[in-house]
Amino acid sequence: MNELPVITPLSEYAVIVSTGNELTPENNERILAIFRQLQFMRLPGLRDLIPAFNTLTLVLDPDWLDRVAPGVDPVFIVRNWIIQALRTEQQSPPNPVCIEIPVCYNHPDTPDLLRLSDRLRLPPEEIIRLHTAATYRVYMLGFLPGFPYLGLLDKRLSAPRLERPRVRVPAGSVAIAGRQTGVYPLASPGGWNLIGKTSVRLYDPAREQPTLLRPGDSVRFIAVPEL
Q1: For residue 213, what pLDDT band results from cuts at 50, 70 and 90?
Q2: What is the pTM of this model?
Q3: H-helix or E-strand spanning residue 137
Q4: Confidence of residue 2 (pLDDT cuts 50, 70, 90)
Q5: I need a labelling partner for 190 at 20 to 30 A (CA). Which of 81, 132, 166, 175 fits?
């Protein structure tokens, strides 16, 4: 945490902090640590924080900038914030949890399992075995409320997104794309390969904590015969 990450402008009022180009748990955890620290600092002028795989976007308040720091480069401001964050006592991360998600892999809403079996030259049973064998890190949430980007998949399961995304993917669909896997928390368009279905609700606005998962948590998929 002592070395400064790369800090670059995104727009007139937004700045990106990056911990590297490689998707690793270490780079992701460092971004999350900076994210937690900046949240704790409650900085005036900071409107929003958006963590991703190995980047953190800071959106600054333009009225605050014009009033307090007219003409000052937002990158310079963010750099000072990061230095301050790294020098202060680090906030302990929330206790990460491992969530087990039951998945039915022979559900009618899983149209891509057999197609992937042909493409990957793996029997469906082997795809299921490989998919359930790993414990996946929640690198980030995005695209939809509560949609977890989970990784990394076994290289043997790596498959590109669909050339033509579907207009509607049912909620609870378990999917893979590249070396990532995820679960659609809501019905939506989508271009990932659908291989399973779960009844677990990853997003519920009526809950005190609407999203079931947080970045830094982990997930294991458990094969079940039916939902």
Answers
A1: very high
A2: 0.90
A3: strand 136-141
A4: low
A5: 132
